[in-house]
């Protein structure tokens, strides 16, 4: 069943996410532009901000690749519209595809046919988290573009590789593939028992704001050191060299089997588009990702 009021809120969130960067990513690009010393890189930041300003004034997606949509839903068992959320998200994606518009990206496996509405088998992807006692509904939406998804990979390290192996895997991935993902990159790293948990945690890592570090002091230290090291590679904005390559490295982790350490990498591009909203049981809401939400209100 579809809840039309909720559908309208999610459609607007998709429009806002496609057209405007979340505040933290916008501010991180501003800070990187200021710090950049190389002239070609400075030109490229100017192009990025010109692109962002035109997208905002013409109310058009800030990148042509509006991605395949991924939703991360957190709520409590008492939220009144629990059974309607999934159908409503799917319906909102179809509506946003026409109204924003979003590029038709979802292609079914094996038939390789484009469904034309950004939905398909298990698409949009919805990750659920039921939180004890939570009254409202929190949704993070992420637009997974083709280029920025390309460096994504995960593996289980051999038992003695340890955290040095984690660092090596992240650096090998970014050196080999990072340039495909329109840098400066948001790098998510997941650490867990197996390839699957590490991959999922690496995606959750890029949902955390740029500039917010893991609360664990060792993970935080690793985030800072890996960013410093990756910047030295000199990929620069759009891969055309520069003094900085990544906006941040975010690490998420889970307890693991003593014999295995799984590591996953997920990358977001300069146009890391994620939107976040808290929706109350009476369907009042607060957008937590964007201060500038006129597009949301006027859409
Ligand atoms: S990597 Fe990002 S900015 Fe580049 S084309 Fe893909 S979605 Fe757009």
What does this structure look like?
With 299 residues, the protein is an alpha+beta fold. It has two domains: 135 residues, Dihydrodipicolinate Reductase, domain 2; 122 residues, no CATH class. Helix content is 39%, strand content 20%. The chain contains nine helices and nine strands. The strands form two sheets. The protein has a five-stranded mixed beta sheet. Strand 8 and strand 9 form a beta hairpin. Helix 1 packs across helix 4 and helix 2 runs antiparallel to helix 3. The longest helix has 20 residues. The protein is globular. The model has no long low-confidence stretch (mean pLDDT 96). Iron/sulfur cluster (SF4) binds next to helix 5.
Task: Quickly list its features.
Dihydrodipicolinate Reductase, domain 2, about 300 residues, binds iron/sulfur cluster, single chain, alpha+beta, four-stranded mixed β-sheet, about 20% strand, 2 domains
């Amino acid at each position: 069943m579809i809840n039309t009021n909720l559908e309208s809120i999610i459609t607007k969130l998709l429009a806002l996410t496609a057209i405007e960067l979340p505040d933290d990513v916008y501010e991180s690009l501003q800070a990187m532009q200021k710090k950049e010393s190389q002239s070609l890189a400075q030109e490229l930041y100017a192009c990025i901000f010109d692109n962002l300003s035109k997208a905002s004034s013409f109310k058009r997606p800030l990148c042509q690749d509006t991605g395949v949509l991924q939703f991360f839903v957190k709520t409590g068992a008492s939220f009144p519209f629990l059974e309607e959320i999934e159908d409503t998200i799917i319906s909102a994606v179809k509506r946003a595809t026409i109204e924003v518009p979003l590029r038709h990206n979802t292609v079914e496996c094996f038939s390789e046919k484009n469904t034309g509405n950004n939905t398909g088998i298990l698409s949009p992807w919805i990750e659920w988290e039921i939180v004890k006692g939570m009254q409202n509904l929190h949704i993070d939406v992420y637009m997974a573009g083709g280029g920025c998804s390309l460096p994504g990979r995960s593996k289980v390290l051999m038992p003695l590789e340890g955290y040095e192996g984690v660092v090596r895997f992240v650096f090998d991935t970014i050196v080999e593939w990072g340039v495909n993902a329109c840098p400066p990159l948001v790098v998510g790293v997941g650490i867990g028992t197996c390839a699957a948990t590490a991959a999922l945690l690496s995606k959750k890592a890029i949902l955390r704001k740029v500039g917010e570090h893991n609360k664990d002091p060792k993970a935080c230290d690793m985030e800072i050191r890996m960013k410093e090291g990756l910047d030295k590679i000199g990929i620069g904005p759009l891969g055309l060299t520069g003094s900085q390559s990544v906006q941040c490295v975010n690490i998420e982790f889970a307890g693991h089997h003593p014999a295995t350490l799984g590591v996953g990498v997920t990358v977001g591009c300069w146009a890391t588009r994620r939107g976040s909203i808290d929706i109350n049981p009476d369907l009042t809401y607060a957008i937590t990702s964007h201060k500038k939400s006129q597009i949301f209100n006027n859409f």
